């Protein structure tokens, strides 16, 4: 867990969002992609996957509520994430909007991961904030992820 004082504020005017992320984590954004990722350093040379938090945005074809979005997102995860296993879905809030928070496991390049996502919909845009790590390190990431999620603001 990262102490609250060890966070840095990130703002993106293009997408109208603000979030706190752990100081020292690297920011990566592919040009033209609606994804902003924050990565921890590798712990050592045996580390197979960097803990990360990312924000993504999805422009929707029509106005949806969070329950409708979840049904579409679940189908997409089942199709695109190898060995996707849903653990839990809970009602939540993200920047004051009704949201869903999900916990699941999946494989990425042969590495078993545990991921949590929280997402909300405002009219025709979905806001998704995710955090993931290798399965056996997730408990250490969870408290940091909750602080990051709580800091997220849709402007």
Question: How would you explain this protein's 3D organization?
Answer:
The protein is an alpha+beta fold. The strands form two sheets. The chain has a seven-stranded antiparallel β-sheet, sandwiched between helices. A three-stranded antiparallel β-sheet has the order 1-2-10. The longest helix has 15 residues, at about 65-80. The mean pLDDT is about 90. It contains two helices and ten strands.
Nutshell version of this structure?
This protein is an alpha+beta fold and 155 residues long. The chain has helices at 66-80, 138-151; strands at residues 7-12, 17-22, 26-28, 35-39, 52-59, 85-94, 97-108, 111-122, 125-134, 153-154.
Number of discrete helical segments:
2
Tell me the overall shape: globular
Secondary-structure element string: EEEEEHEEEEHE
List how many beta strands DSSP finds. 10
The mean pLDDT is: 92
Strand order of the largest sheet: 3-4-5-9-8-7-6
What's the Cα radius of gyration? 15 Å
Task: Please summarize the sheet with the most strands.
Answer: 7 strands, antiparallel
The residue ranges in which pLDDT falls below 50 over 5 or more consecutive positions are none
What's the assembly state of these chains? single chain
Assign a percent range to the helix content.
Answer: 10-25%
N- to C-terminal distance? 27 Å
Share of β-strand residues: over 45%
SSE class: alpha+beta
């Amino acid at each position: 867990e990262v102490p609250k004082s060890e966070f840095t504020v990130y703002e993106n005017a293009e997408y109208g969002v603000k979030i706190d992320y752990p100081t020292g984590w690297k920011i990566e954004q592919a040009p033209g992609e609606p994804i902003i990722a924050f990565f921890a350093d590798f712990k050592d040379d045996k580390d197979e996957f960097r803990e990360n938090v990312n924000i993504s945005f999805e422009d929707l074809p029509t106005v949806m509520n969070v329950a409708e979005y979840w049904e579409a997102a679940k189908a997409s995860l089942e199709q695109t994430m190898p060995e996707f296993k849903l653990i839990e879905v809970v009602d939540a809030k993200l920047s004051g909007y009704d949201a869903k928070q999900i916990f699941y496991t999946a494989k990425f390049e042969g590495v078993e991961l545990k991921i949590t996502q929280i997402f909300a919909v405002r009219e025709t845009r979905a806001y998704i904030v995710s955090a993931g790590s290798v399965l056996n390190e997730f408990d250490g990431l969870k408290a940091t992820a909750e602080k990051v999620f709580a800091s997220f603001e849709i402007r």
